[in-house]
Design brief:
alpha/beta
Length: 148
Amino acid sequence: MNRLRQISHAAGLLWLLVFAAYTVRDEVSNPALWRESPPQGADGNMLEDRRFSDIRRALPDHGLVGYVSDVDLSSAPSNTRWVVAQYHLAPVVLVSQNPGSSSPDPRLQWGIADCADPSAAAMVARSAGFAMVKDFGGGVWLLHRESK
């Protein structure tokens, strides 16, 4: 009976390893996906913290804030940008306002642009109904809702 238990544990561990390898296969084998993720340094968390620290002080203390990006957030690797931004800007809650995802939400008076290509920030902000307020560098912009 002990031998049967060892075999079942080994089989379970093997299944777990195969599943884990299959799950990360696409991200590891496709360097193009890496470029869509936020930049990482020796300490990626510290780098992202610096990237968002100044804009965090410019945002409201809490509430909903629009989030726009030039990266399609519908895929898991790209969605990492939004998750990282949300982590560093909490307790503010980021609401995606990317072009094509939904119509601009007029309740969102403030927003941020988090762009892989900083030159795209103005276009994605305008298409979501925001005006550019301040460039915080690294593709991060403070936005405010345009009044109509």
